[in-house]
């Protein structure tokens, strides 16, 4: 590898180095996916904001998820598009660290938010008569703020530890953007502290703990659903849970595969493919599998055309 100074001033993103002749196709594909994702989430935010019948905790969290996914995808894709269009694959050291912080922060926020959405479904299905007591507007705001603060604290820890590493092996990042695993590969010193913290805080606190909370919540939810006498009630509850569980599976599956492993097992070429799943496809699919399949949202879309927000 090319030797560089321990205090590198910039990194070279190698994610698209093997696109010879396909730059235009990849650029148009990424641009189209990015614009469609932004549009879909903006529609969800507009519908849930304008329809008074959707001013419920479920759609409050759904709106938060859409805002989060817009930010999430905007941290990486515009830089990718610029790199392909301009042929400039460099990113400054400070720019890389900022991108790392934002990406990890938003990822942690989404992990916690998905757990809060599971709690909302748990209360709605298992304790319907006390739903309005437990899930007040104030509680929803507090849960939303907690998810953003939790994600930010997680990112501050990992970003601080990563930024202090000496990058003297190479300044070439074998990835599409600045993420923790490919940057650890470039350090010429031991990264065991980073790996332990990544596993303990990122893997257990932000990853495993919310996931266990989600699974336990759904154990109670499924038990309650199976006891329902109404077939329509069971179908509606299963439909809502299936959408959320699909999002959880996509998000946690890719995230846990990427972060909860020792650095010796990282296969960066393989990880680059997985990174596309959780950084691009998951935000793009969320409106389809969680929101646009919802009859209330689709009905609100039809009623919204030609009307102003009241």
Task: Outline the structure in words.
This protein has 310 residues and is mostly helical. It has a single domain, classed as Rhopdopsin 7-helix transmembrane proteins (Up-down Bundle), CATH 1.20.1070. 74% of the residues lie in helices and 3% in strands. The chain is built from ten helices and three strands, in the order E-H-H-E-H-H-H-E-H-H-H-H-H. It has helices at 23-50, 57-86, 93-126, 131-134, 137-163, 180-186, 192-226, 231-259, 268-291, 295-304, and strands at 10-13, 90-92, 172-173. The chain has a three-stranded mixed β-sheet with strand order 2-1-3. It is globular.
Q: How would you summarize what this structure contains?
A:
It contains 10 helices and 3 strands. The protein has 310 residues and is mainly α. Helix 1 packs across helix 10 (295-304) and helix 3 (93-126) packs antiparallel against helix 8.
What are the key terms here?
mainly alpha, Rhopdopsin 7-helix transmembrane proteins, 3 strands, 310 residues, globular, 10 helices, disordered N terminus
* Total helical segments: 10
Query: How many separate structural domains?
Result: 1
CATH architecture: Up-down Bundle
Low-confidence segments, given as residue ranges, are 1-5
Task: Indicate the overall shape.
Answer: globular
Which CATH C-level class is it?
Mainly Alpha
| Name of the CATH homologous superfamily | Rhodopsin 7-helix transmembrane proteins
* Fraction of residues in β-strands: under 5%
Determine the mean pLDDT.
Answer: 82
Q: Helices and strands, in N-to-C order?
A: EHHEHHHEHHHHH
Class per helix and strand makeup: mainly alpha
User: CATH topology, what is it called?
Assistant: Rhopdopsin 7-helix transmembrane proteins
Strand element count: 3
How far do the termini sit from each other?
61 Å
User: Quick one: biggest sheet?
Assistant: 3 strands, mixed
Q: Classify the helix fraction into a percent range.
A: over 70%
Biggest sheet strand order reads 2-1-3
């Amino acid at each position: 590898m090319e030797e560089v100074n321990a205090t590198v001033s910039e990194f070279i993103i190698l994610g698209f180095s093997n696109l010879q002749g396909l730059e235009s196709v990849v650029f148009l594909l990424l641009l189209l996916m990015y614009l469609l994702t932004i549009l879909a989430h903006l529609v969800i935010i507009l519908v849930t904001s304008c329809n008074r019948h959707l001013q419920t905790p479920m759609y409050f969290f759904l709106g938060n998820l859409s805002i989060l996914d817009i930010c999430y995808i905007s941290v990486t894709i515009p830089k990718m598009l610029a790199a392909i269009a301009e042929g400039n694959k460099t990113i400054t050291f400070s720019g890389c660290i900022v991108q790392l912080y934002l990406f990890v922060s938003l990822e942690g926020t989404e992990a916690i938010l998905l757990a809060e959405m599971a709690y909302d479904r748990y209360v709605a299905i298992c304790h319907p008569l006390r739903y309005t007591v437990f899930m007040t507007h104030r509680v929803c705001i507090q849960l939303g703020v907690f998810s953003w603060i939790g994600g930010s604290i997680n990112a501050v820890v990992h970003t601080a530890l990563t930024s202090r590493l000496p990058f003297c092996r190479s300044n070439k990042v074998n990835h599409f953007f600045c993420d923790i695993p490919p940057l650890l590969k470039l350090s010429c010193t031991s990264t065991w502290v980073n790996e332990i913290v990544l596993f303990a805080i990122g893997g257990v606190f932000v990853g495993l703990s919310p996931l266990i909370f989600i699974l336990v919540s759904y154990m109670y939810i499924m038990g309650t659903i199976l006891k329902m006498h109404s077939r329509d009630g069971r179908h509606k509850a299963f439909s809502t849970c299936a959408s959320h569980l699909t999002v959880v599976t996509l998000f946690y599956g890719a995230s846990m595969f990427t972060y909860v492993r020792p650095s010796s097992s990282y296969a960066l070429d393989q990880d680059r493919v997985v990174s596309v799943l959780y950084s691009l496809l998951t935000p793009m699919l969320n409106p389809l599998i969680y929101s646009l399949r919802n009859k209330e949202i689709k009905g609100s879309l039809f009623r919204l055309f030609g009307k102003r927000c009241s």
